[in-house]
Amino acid sequence: MRLSSQSAIHLADSIERPGYARDTPGHGILHFGMGAFHRAHQAVYTDDAIAATGDIWGITGVSLRSPAVAAQLNPQDGLYTVSIRSSTGARQRLIGSLRSVLVASQATPAVVAAVASPQTHIISFTVSEKGYCRDAGGSLDLALAGVHSLYRYLRDGLALRQQAGLPGVTLLSCDNLAGNGRQLAALLTQYLEATAPALTRWFHDHCTCPATMLDRIVPASSAADLDQHATSLGLRDEAAVFTEEFTQWVIEDRFAGPRPQWEAGGAQFTRHVQAYETAKLRMLNGAHSALAYIGLARGHEFVHEAVADLPLRSLVERLMREEAATSLTAAPGQDLGRHADALLQRFANPALRHRLLQISMDGSQKIPQRWLETLAFHQRTGRACASILTALAAWIRFVRGDRWQVDDPRAAELAGLWSSGDASQVVDALFGPQGLFRNSWVASSADRATLLAFIGNPPAL
Ligand code: CS2
């Protein structure tokens, strides 16, 4: 039997349930990007906030193109379980904050109407780095921002809000971008200026784009996970997600209207989001990407295996402690050394089975904020960053595309750079003065030589 509002009474008693009645209409959150991450993070904080305050909020999910998540969640009335996997076992909980999922490409008017609805106060996003349709320099690429980009739905819905005299909304980017709120505001402004200039002023005067830092490791659920889970649950949950105990959400308190009391689930509201965010991107995500590209080349499949490979573990420690942490200003009370200790422990969790290939996706969208900004910082301090350069060389070999399937919006272009077989041409096309990533980092001649040496001959570690 499939999980749904009706069948939920058959769930095993050990499973925690929403502490509120789900059938009351409430305030609305419209969330773009219904992947496992949102279901294991923001939707859980929202569930906690509703249970703690009785203030009802409901999330309407939007998938931009793929109907897969809607087909998992709608037949289940939006219900799904989160399983927390630690080394001591698993704990499960049923989440009630999600109401339904729209597929934007098939239900455009419904998505635009949801943006414009007076019940909607927050529109949030986990559309991944590439969902923002940026060019390599970080500006909006209008050719990519087509009819099924998030910008189009925002523009059409916000225009209706303006015409109806409705209040603005909070646009909350929850993606791993440096200065995610600021970037969303700038990109949407570029889009409006190009396609609906009369709306730009209203957007600036009525909407806000707070900065956020979100952290929880959520591997994609596999078919085997779902099968095994059905046995322990007593019902089949096609939308189940599996995650770790750790969770963190740091948010800038700059909302255009009401918001859930996410503090009830442990969210921190602070002015120092940027410090947390930069530390997370350069340490956690920077380490993750290094584990992915170097770990795959060393024959590993999962993060816990790669971090148990001692020479690789030491490289990742040096990357976090000596290269990333020294480029950061900690938030008040934040201890970056302890942060690195905790990350190593989280990476070592064997129950998570987090695939390196999942992290390897979309490298061209990830490396600027994970590695290149650290390299640029230390170009000014004079510190050599051998660990990041080793990881960067592994990525350059990876995008050649001859050993793994490269899942990246620039995959063809990156593989094309390799057509001459000459690594120095590839490095110059990426990190030379005219290179693709020149706005983030241009390799000095010493770093260029190191990179070329590491590409030709991966260091033994
Ligand atoms: C990972 C992140 O796939 C990736 O690129 O580095 O999804 C990471 O697991 C999360 O940011 C953890 O909060």
Overall description:
The longest helix has 25 residues. Helix 15 crosses helix 18. The model has no long low-confidence stretch (mean pLDDT 96). By secondary structure, the chain is α/β, with parallel strands linked by helices. It has two domains: 263 residues, NAD(P)-binding Rossmann-like Domain (Rossmann fold), CATH 3.40.50; 184 residues, N-(1-d-carboxylethyl)-l-norvaline Dehydrogenase, domain 2 (Orthogonal Bundle). The strands form three sheets. A five-stranded parallel beta sheet has the order 5-2-1-6-7, with helices on both faces. Strands 4-3-9 form a three-stranded mixed beta sheet. Strands 8-10-11 form a three-stranded mixed beta sheet, covered by helices on one side. It has 18 helices and eleven strands. Bound molecules: D-mannonic acid. D-mannonic acid binds next to helix 9 and helix 13.
